[in-house]
Each structure stands twice: as structure tokens, then as C-alpha cells.
Prior knowledge:
Elements: H1 4-10, E1 14-18, H2 27-38, E2 42-45, H3 52-62, E3 66-71, H4 76-89, E4 96-101, H5 105-114, E5 118-120, H6 126-136
Parallel strand pairs: 1-2, 1-3, 3-4, 4-5
Amino acid sequence: MVAKKEKKAAEKIRVLVAKPGLDGHDRGAKVIARALRDAGFEVIYTGLHQTPEMVVNAAVEEDVHVVGLSILSGAHNVLVPEIIKGVKKAGLTDVLFIVGGIIPDEDTQSLIKLGVHMVFTPGASLKAVVEYIQKSAPSRS
């Protein structure tokens, strides 16, 4: 039997980086997307102003392992649950959800209870994000 780590190395981890809502700043999301590509992940970047439905559709169409949501607008408590529910309802039940952006400490635990696996706030290193995904992304062999 092949070890889990070896299986992950054999398949390319597919990461969707999405900017849901009305947030108009995507520099951080683009930096993350580039760092993930440089680390060997397959990255799909949705662009700005995505509705939850658009994010869900992209996640399903691209059959991603990871959904990364970048939110600076403060709408995380509305957008994130809608996206998680939609992705799971569409049949992707083994997706790693990560959120980055301006997320107040008091909201982190409620997001985790809703299904977010990790929250990265400003100042998180690119290395930390890459390493978290490498060790936590589900395998689909």
C-alpha cells in the first residue's frame, strides 16, 4: 500500500482561490495563487466579485481539493457558510476550506464550526499556507 504522503505527491493538488462578494482588492489573492503555483499546486483563480454560486460551480467543475476564500470586505460570516453548504450539497464532501483576509479573532471559531479548516490573517507567511495545504489536502486516489 502506498503511503498517504506518497499518494499526495503523485497527484497534483488542485486549489481554487476565490474572491467572493463585493471586495475589490485582489493583490493578496494573486500573491497566494502565485505562491501555490510555485509550490507545485494546480491553481484556479476566479477573479473578483464572485457570487457564492459562481464559487461553488467553479469548485465542482474543477474538482478541487482545496477552496481558498479571500475576503477583505467583512462579509465572511455570510459568504463562507453559503459556499461551504453549496460545495457539499454539490457532492464535494472531501474539500479542504481555508479562508484568508481580514477576519476578526472572534469570528475564527464560528467559521471553524461551520467547516473552515484554517483561517489565515494578514501577516501569515506564504510558507505556512503552502505547508498547511500540503499536509491537510484530501487525497482522491
